[in-house]
Amino acid sequence: MTRAKICGITRHEDAELAAELGAWAIGLIQWPGSVRACEPAVAAGIVAQLRRQVACVGVFVDPTLDELSRAAETIGFSHLQLHGDEGPAFCAEVARRTGCKVIKAVGVGSRADIQALEVFHTDFHLLDAAAGAERGGTGRTWEWTLLADRRSKVPAILSGGLNAANVADGINATRPWGVDTASGTELEPGVKDPEKLRAFLDAVAGTGAGAGEAAA
Questions:
Q1: Residue 85: burial class (beta carbons within 10 Å; 0-12, 13-18, 19+)
Q2: What is the pLDDT of residues 38-97, one digit of tens each?
């Protein structure tokens, strides 16, 4: 089955519901520039409560290695998502230093953006809509047919404007390892809508799409 990551979590109750409904992972944004940024103390509480139930992903934009090391130690993330201009060597060092699995994210505007990911031998690639300074969370989709030329064996997570109405189409078009949503399951930035969240996860489960081997 295709896995689902629910990103932009800022509240315990939303994290608990995502886990209860079968999400593979929750994303806790640690970039102050995001309207969905989660306070580190809140993130630590959520991770302490749910780390045995879901993958807990810290989302960063152009952090330092020291920042990531501290966050991995004090908050307890299992995965680190790098959504900035981090390079392959940096990503490799993050994995070595923290012991966390690494998700390298890229905004896709052309085939060149997908090809540029080929040199990142991280645990996952997350393919989002190109968003410039916003770094995701825009609610916009992108041209999924661009994935046809992807050659990487790294598990792909499809992101960008996914919601209950279109996620099955995205899965059927791209056969990703997983999918990721933030705005598509919200009442407002950082606050989840329980019905949208339930509908999204039901839609993902209903596809029955094969999506590669487990890479938890």
A1: exposed
A2: 999 999 999 999 999 999 999 999 999 999 999 999 999 999 999 999 999 999 999 999
Identify which of 175, 134, 142 has the alpha carbon closest to the alpha carbon of residue 159.
Answer: 142
- CA atoms 212, 20, 53, 101: torsion sign: positive
DSSP 44: H
User: Quick check: helix, strand or coil at residue 127?
Assistant: strand
The b-or-e profile of 114-134 (16+ CB within 10 A means b, else e) is: beebeebebbbbbbbbbbeee
Characterize the bridge pairing of strands 191-192 and 186-188. antiparallel
- 81 near 27, Cβ under 8 Å? yes
**Of the candidates 30, 7, 59, 9, the residue with the CA atom closest to the CA atom of residue 182:** 7
